[in-house]
Amino acid sequence: MAGTHTEGGSGTRLPPVDVSELVRVRTHHPEAVAEAAARRARRPLLTTSGRLMIVAADHPARGALGAGGRALAMANRADLLRRLCLALSRPGVDGVLASADILDDLLLLGALDHKVVLGSMNRGGLQGASFELDDRFTGHRPEDIQRLGFDAGKLLLRIDYADPGSLTTLESAARVIDDMAARRLPVFVEPFITSRTPEGRLVNDLSADAVTRSIAIASGLGGSSAYTWLKVPVTENPDDMARVMETSTLPAVLLGGDVGGSQEQAAAFEKWRGALQLPTVRGLVVGRSLLYPADGDVAAAVDTAAGLL
């Protein structure tokens, strides 16, 4: 599909995305999404390295569009798709995590061959909403992931001991873990202990004790943990990660988040580098800090992250 090129950093130009063509196909041939999924060339979840480097882009479906200090950075879909296609083309990048609309676009663009595809499952906890912790499963269902031939699912599990909505999320997460295990499909669980500020904003607790509790809770959900992976943050003090990750034998990947400026990004790389040496940590799932880096160099940010593995 033809389109306008945009700089992606390091002399690399973002690949073209023709929005008009995507809309034409969606309008006149909606079954093209299923057809593209059926012919997608697949690969194992893990290669011989046993490591995973996944680019995340499921934030918009939860109304979380900000990145790098720009409140609507992820709102331009063509720009986001160009950044994703560039990231997926870089050496060492194994795949992508996204909601259905974005994965459908990437299927139509032919960007998912020989890539690991993770479907984002619960997007009902809209950013800033009063019901944010009642995080219902409004995205991919286990049967959708199986039908489309995707490789895994991901769910967000935020727990506030003062909010009954957390119990709803816990119970529904457990049942989805059961359903995924019955289909022999991996599910990546992203747990946090969280609380509200006096202004009502949700804040994730990244202290060692809180991350330890969140891992313990997530590891015990469902009738089987055989297909469960963890997606965890690096603790406030990176030196705490070794004892925190002793909480579970489940394989884990590190999450990224929006890290802000260049100095914060460099610090994040160093935190990931250290935590990746731990025996249960198998890779990275990082989104905004790589797709919207402070210096605008998408290729360099992705290459640096992939090089940590």
Biggest beta sheet attributes: 8 strands, parallel, barrel
Q: Alpha-carbon distance between the termini?
A: 33 Å
Order of helices and strands: EEHHEHEHEHEHEEHEHEHEHH
Provide a count of the helices.
11
Low-confidence stretches: 1-6
Outline = globular
Helicity level:
25-40%
What is the number of strand segments? 11
Keywords for this entry:
8-stranded parallel barrel; 11 helices; globular; disordered N terminus
Give a description of the structure.
The radius of gyration is 18 Å and the shape is globular. By secondary structure, it is α/β, with parallel strands linked by helices. α5 links the parallel β5 and β6. The strands form two sheets. The protein has an eight-stranded parallel beta barrel with strand order 3-4-5-6-7-9-10-11, surrounded by four helices. Strands 1-2 form a two-stranded antiparallel ribbon. It contains eleven helices and eleven strands.
Q: How are the SSEs ordered, and which strands pair?
A:
Layout: E1 6-7, E2 13-14, H1 19-28, H2 32-39, E3 52-57, H3 77-89, E4 95-98, H4 100-108, E5 116-120, H5 142-147, E6 152-159, H6 165-182, E7 187-196, E8 202-204, H7 208-219, E9 228-232, H8 241-244, E10 252-255, H9 262-275, E11 281-286, H10 288-291, H11 298-307
Parallel strand pairs: 3-4, 3-11, 4-5, 5-6, 6-7, 7-9, 9-10, 10-11
Antiparallel strand pairs: 1-2, 7-8
Outline of the structure:
The protein has helices spanning 19-28, 32-39, 77-89, 100-108, 142-147, 165-182, 208-219, 241-244, 262-275, 288-291, 298-307; strands spanning 6-7, 13-14, 52-57, 95-98, 116-120, 152-159, 187-196, 202-204, 228-232, 252-255, 281-286.
